[in-house]
Amino acid sequence: MAGTDQRTDYRVTFLVLCAGVASFSLLQSMVNPVLPTIEAALDTDQATVTWVLTAYLLSASVFTPIIGRIGDKVGKERMLVVALVALAVGSLLAALAPSIGVLIAARAIQGIGGGVLPLTFGIIRDEFPRDKVAGAVGTSAALLAVGGGIGLVLAGPIVDVLSYHWLFWIPMVMTVLAALAAYFFVPESPERTAGRINVSSALLMSSWLVTLLLAVSQGHSWGWGSPITVGLFVATAVLLPVWVRAEARSDSPLIDMRMMRIPTVWTVNLVSLLFGMGMYSMFAFLPQFLQTPDDVTGYGFGASVTQSGLMLLGQTVATFLAGIYSGRLAARFGSKAVLVVGATLTAFGTLGLVVAHDQLWMVLAETTVLGLGFGLSFAAMSNLIVDAVPQSQTGVASGMNANIRTVGGALGSAVLASVVTANARPDGLPVEAGYTHGFGVLVVTSTLAALVAVFVPVIKARTHVVPGPQTEAEAAEHAAAAEVTAVR
Hints:
Elements: H1 10-29, H2 35-41, H3 46-49, H4 51-74, H5 76-96, H6 100-110, H7 116-127, H8 130-161, H9 166-185, H10 199-222, H11 227-249, H12 257-260, H13 263-291, H14 294-297, H15 305-311, H16 313-333, H17 335-355, H18 360-388, H19 394-420, H20 432-454, H21 472-481
Subcellular location: Cell membrane
Membrane topology: Multi-pass membrane protein
Protein name: MFS transporter
C-alpha cells in the first residue's frame, strides 16, 4: 500500500484509476446485446434473464453513494481496493455461473464496484495539482460513457470468437490488475471526514432506491397498473421523505442535505437525471434499431450484434476525444459552458435520429454528435460537482450525482420501452413510429437538460479547505456560503 510520506506520481495514480473505471464501465454495457445468448445458454426465459441487468442496476445504485461516503470517512484508497475486489469476485462468479440464479447474484456483487467512480474523483482531487484536476476528472468521467460504447462494440466479437463467459473473464483480469496497482501505487487519502457511518440512513436510502428502480425497471413487464408495481411506487413515496427527514435531523448524515441544497449541486443533479434518461436509453435501444431487419420492417439496417457495435464505434471515439479535451475547454470557457454545449449536442443528435434515419451515413453522423455530447457533458457535470462541495465530501457528492444519472437511465429506458413497443407488428417487432416517438421523447429530455444547464450557478470564489475543525454540516454550510458571489 502506497504510503503518505512519499506520494506516488499523480500520472501513475491516474492510469490506475482509469483502469478501474474502464473495468466497471465495460461490465455496464457488454452484457446488454447478448442477453438472448445467455437466455439460451442457461435455459431460462426473457423475463428472468432481464434480472441480469436489473440486479446490477439495483446494486450499483445502492452502493455507489455508500462506498463513496465510506471512502470519505475511512480512506478512499482502501475503499477503491474493496470496490475493485468486489468487481473481480463478481466477474469470476459470473464467468463460472452454472445457472441464471448464480449469474444474477454475481451481477449484484459486481454492482458494489459502482463506488469506483466517486472514489476516483475524490482521489484525483486529493492527489493532483490543482490545474490538472479538471482534465483528469473530465477524462475519467468520460471513460464511463466510453466504456459503455466499447462494451457494445466488443460484445459481439467476443461472443462469436470465444463465448459469453469471456464477457466476464476479460473485465475480471483487468480488475484484478487494477486492484493490485491501487493497493501498491495509489496513496492513502489525506482528507478524512470525522464521524460514524450512519447505518440506518444507508438502509433507508437503499430501501427507497430499490423500490423505485424495481418498479421502473420491471413495470413494463409486470404492468404499470399491477398491484406490485403500484405498491412499489407507493413504498417509494413513503420511504423517500422519511429518508430525507432522517438525514436532515441526523448529526452524522450519510448524505448531508445541506450539501444537496447547494445551488450548483442540485441543478447539476437535475441535469444528470435528465441527461441519464437520454444517454442510457440510447445505449439500450440504438443497437436494437440498427439490428431491425429492414427487408421485413422497412426500416433499420438488419445488422448483427457485431455489426451494430461497429456502427457505433464513431460515437465511442467521439466520446473519448471529447472527454480528453474537456479539461482544456473547461479551463478556457468554464465547465458550465461545456455542459450547456454537451447537452445541446445531445439534443441535436437525438433530433437527427427522429427526422433522418433512413441512410446509414445519417445515423453514423448523428451518433457521432451524440458521442461528443456525452463526453463533454459527463466531464462537465463531474467537474462542477467536485468544485462545488467541500473536499471531505467529494466522494459522496459525486456518488450521488452518478446515482441520480443511473436513476434517470432507468426511468428513460422504462419510458422508451413503453413508447417503442406501444404499437407492435404482428411479428412482435416495433413499428418505425415507435422508435421515432421514443427518440422524440429523448429530444425533450435532452433539451430540458440543456435549459437547466444554462441556470447552473458559476462559482466565482471558492475556499476548498477551511482551516480548523468543522462538523460536516458546517463544511456544507460553508460551501453554500461560498456561492453568494455566484452568477447565473
